[in-house]
Amino acid sequence: MSNDAEATLAPTTDRAGHVEQHGIDFVPDAERHGRPRELFWVWMSANVIYLYFVLGGVLMLLGLSVQEAIVITIVGNVWWLAVGWLSVSGPASGTPSVTVMRAMFGIRGNRVFGGGLGVAIGLFYEIINIAVATLAANAMLALLGIELEMWAEWIVLGVVAVLSFVLSVYGHATILKLAPWFSAALAAAFAVAAVFIFGAADFSYTPAPMETGEHWAAILLGYAIIAAGPLSWGTGADYSRYLPRSTPKRGVIWWSALGGFIPSVVLGGLGIVAATSIDMTDPQTAIAEIVPSWFTPIFLGIVVLGSITNNVLVAYSTGLYAQGLGVKLSRATTVVVTGVLATAAAWWFVFIAPSFLDTLNASLELSVTVLGPLVAVYAVDIFLRRNRYDGVALNDERPGSPFWYSGGWYWPGIVAMVVGTTLAVLMANTTLYVGPIAQALGGADLSALLAPVIGGAIYAVLWLTTNPYRDRMLRPDAVNGQTRREGESGASAAPDLEADPGASAPLESEVLA
Predict the structure, then answer these.
(1) Is residue 139 part of a domain?
(2) Is 471 a residue whose pLDDT tops 80?
């Protein structure tokens, strides 16, 4: 099908070059369009970024060997499969992730554990992207002989912020349209950089020896830092919700996962190799030691563009999360409001904070304590619910609606998050804080390994033993008898099999069909 034909089929509510009309509301079947492979380019464009290059170098700064750092980079990024798994809830529900999470926390509980945490995490990554892009842009201009006064550097930050948020305001279709082009440009530039990085690499590099306990602590800390990348993307449904309900789940999972995994591992690997020959405490400056002078401004341009493309997705999801707080603003408006807040905070990071890299590392380490349990609860809910989500019911915020639960709160999800996050904090070992469990284990940080498992397990047990799920007739995972009695047809929300509470559940093999 030609691009013109595809554009004709796309609904006017979601067309490239026009501001997207939908936010956290339900996307009707008549407005669904697209193919799973489009998700690859969305995630690819957002993850061909300088941050992963820096994180590869951070692993080496922890004192790990090249082989250990590469293994940690691969294993930590396996979490991208979880991002793909969460993405299947988009076509099933026709809603973004923050709306799906009402099934896990309740209408009111989701404003804290879905919308609230989502806005906090989104703002954090928006700040990182604006700060990194601003620092790189200023360095690039200096190399080109343009010396800026302080006020001019502030203007650079403002320009970066505007470029970051304008595409997010336009929304889903515009992002899909431009993602392949951003991906190609960034990948080509990093491919050229890779030639110079490998040419300067010291393959005889050997790290300083460490005590066994200290060594394992560094390995686990490195894993937590790498895992924070994919774990921060509990927003897969945001970009898949326009796909038709019949879209194969395998395609959604694998195209989403590969779009994030491939650039994360490749760029992390480049950072590891670069760290054998340059000082990765200041990689933006040190990179000039191993690339030709003509390429250094280009490399810094990659950093700027990659940070902006990553921020496009981050800002888009943050705007949706802000709507999930219950504010009566359009998606485009919430993108602008959260963007202004992130820009102000980024100004502090760039021009006031004493050490941006130290602050970045500590923040990434601590973010896993929340992100791990949150992604686990979401993933387990999809499995237990057989990916059955009624997008119409999820948008019903009235008391007594299917996802109102107990006063607007669903305690299994809330308890799982509180317990999982608390244990993760106790097990964390960061540059700012060391939990008592980590201290007892000689500094070993198990938060990224055990917290998701514990949080997910608690949720599964409570889900299966708590009303309404003890009584199959009351399960609000489809358009069931309860919803019909409330006078809602919900005809577009689920197939007939799911409308019959007494119908047999699909086989487990059908979950990934």
Answers:
(1) yes
(2) no
